[in-house]
Design goal:
This protein is α+β, with helices and mostly antiparallel strands and 134 residues long. It has one domain. Helix content is 35%, strand content 39%. The chain contains 4 helices and 6 strands. A 4-stranded antiparallel β-sheet has the order 1-4-5-6. A two-stranded antiparallel sheet has the order 2-3. Helix 1 packs across helix 3. The chain is globular and about 60 Å long. About 10% of the residues have low confidence.
């Protein structure tokens, strides 16, 4: 845990350095990016395609800690982009990671037998619930 906190302090100190914002294999922090989708309609072909909206968005940084009783403690932090600003994954990751490292986090527990997709869905649900409460 001390190594993780040292990495967090280094990431906060050098937040403008690209290497600090990328996830590496040994990094326990994972990220989820959520953006609204825009529908693009092809009038001639009659098809609809969806693309991420260029403005606004949400970045969630989280990590898991094993707990007793076959469960995980999930700690997460959020970075929300204003609908007036262009969304940038790199900036969202840096802000969310910084908040996660500074203990501006929320916690919840999940069973340890969940799959990766189920964990991600639980994190998204908890993050959206925390935004609704704010």
């Amino acid at each position: 845990m001390a190594d993780f906190l040292d990495e967090c302090r280094a990431a906060i100190a050098n937040v403008t350095e690209p290497a600090q914002t990328k996830q590496v294999a040994s990094d326990p922090v994972k990220f989820v990016h959520i953006r609204e989708q825009e529908a693009w309609i092809d009038i001639a072909g009659g098809s609809v395609t969806y693309h991420p909206a260029p403005n606004g968005g949400l970045t969630i940084a989280y990590y898991l800690l094993p707990e007793e009783g076959q469960q995980w403690l999930v700690r997460f932090a959020l970075a929300q982009c204003s609908p007036r600003d262009n969304y940038n994954k790199k900036v969202g990751r840096a802000i969310a990671r910084g908040r996660l490292c500074r203990s501006a986090v929320e916690n919840f527990y999940i069973p340890d037998q969940l799959s990766g997709a189920e964990i991600t869905n639980a994190v998204i649900a908890a993050a959206l619930a925390s935004l609704e409460q704010a």
